[in-house]
């Protein structure tokens, strides 16, 4: 049976992982692949003219390894069920791929059945980002000098492509 593949992309700290995990708990035969699990080591990340590590570019990710995981999952779906319930086993396997740079990576274009793009207002994004702990930590000015401008750049690229991506505006109340 063919795996149904859903993409959840969007702004940093926009709720992608939270949504994917909540869906995984609710949907039988559902697995999640998180793009955040495919970052290259810090020593391989480019540094821009302002001294900021360029984590918000495709080159910072092992996308070929991610694609291998996607194809493997599509070929041999694992699911979130803990039982051998035959009725559930007959349901279509669902794979959710979540991450901030999914739709500008052309090899993924051939796998999507549905695509969603989460966005939140600048102020909320900055607030959420300030509460997270990153390794390495965000240096002063990183959000305004790099993270938000890169998000706007990638969002524009996605809007220009316009390939059946459904936008979702998220608020804090959505995930409670």
TrEMBL record:
Protein known as: Nicotinamide riboside kinase 1 isoform X3
Lineage: Eukaryota, Metazoa, Chordata, Craniata, Vertebrata
Designated gene of the protein: NMRK1
An example Gene Ontology biological process: pyridine nucleotide biosynthetic process
Pfam annotation, one family: AAA_18
Family that this chain belongs to: Belongs to the uridine kinase family. NRK subfamily.
GO molecular function, one term: ribosylnicotinamide kinase activity
One Gene Ontology CC term in the entry: cytosol
Keyword set includes Iron-sulfur: no
Reaction(s) the record says it catalyses: beta-nicotinamide D-riboside + ATP = beta-nicotinamide D-ribonucleotide + ADP + H(+); beta-D-ribosylnicotinate + ATP = nicotinate beta-D-ribonucleotide + ADP + H(+)
Record CDD domains: NRK1
């Amino acid at each position: 049976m063919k795996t149904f593949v859903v993409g959840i992309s969007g702004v940093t700290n926009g709720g992608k992982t939270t949504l994917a995990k909540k869906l995984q708990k609710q949907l039988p035969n559902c697995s999640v692949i998180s793009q955040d699990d495919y970052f290259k080591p810090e020593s391989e990340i480019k540094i821009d003219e302002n001294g900021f590590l360029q984590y918000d570019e495709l080159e910072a990710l092992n996308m070929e390894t991610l694609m291998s995981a996607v194809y493997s999952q599509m070929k041999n779906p694992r699911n979130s069920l803990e039982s051998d319930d035959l009725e559930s086993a007959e349901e279509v396997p669902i794979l959710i791929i979540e991450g901030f740079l999914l739709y500008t990576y052309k090899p993924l274009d051939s796998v999507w059945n549905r695509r969603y793009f989460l966005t939140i207002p600048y102020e909320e994004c900055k607030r959420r980002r300030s509460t997270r702990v990153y390794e390495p930590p965000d240096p002063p000015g990183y959000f305004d000098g790099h993270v938000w401008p890169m998000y706007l750049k990638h969002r524009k690229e996605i809007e220009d492509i316009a390939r059946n991506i459904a936008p979702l505006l998220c608020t804090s109340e959505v995930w409670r």
